[in-house]
Fold this protein.
Amino acid sequence: MKKKNVMLLMVATFLIGLLASSFWYRLNYPMKPLFVEIVNNTETLIPSVIIEHGKIGLQEKISIVQLRPKEKRRIALNHNPGLGFNVKVNYPDGETTEVCAGKNKDYWFFRETITKIGIYTTPIR
């Protein structure tokens, strides 16, 4: 075989292997994550934010601690869109605020903005 044919065969084999592994990965990937961005839009440190969600056979609880003023944190939930999730904020003075977000919305990304008077949910995409 000529050098050009060998090189062409190597490139074709590489591309076939790349396509096969991509197909295998997508076939065995459990599910697409639902992303939630938590934004502290206050001037104080938030001691903790609790995100809970569940469905048949699964209950998950995620804790975010020491959320600084104006800080953003993004988390991924093993959850389908439209089923909703709970966000509970524990303020430094002992007060709590809780909201059920994302219910009946077919989005994969939500922003939860924490203010002094509550939590605001914004579907992003």
Q: What stands out?
A: The chain has a mean pLDDT of 88. The chain has two domains: 1-30, 34-123. Helices lie at 3-28. The first helix runs from residue 3 to 28.
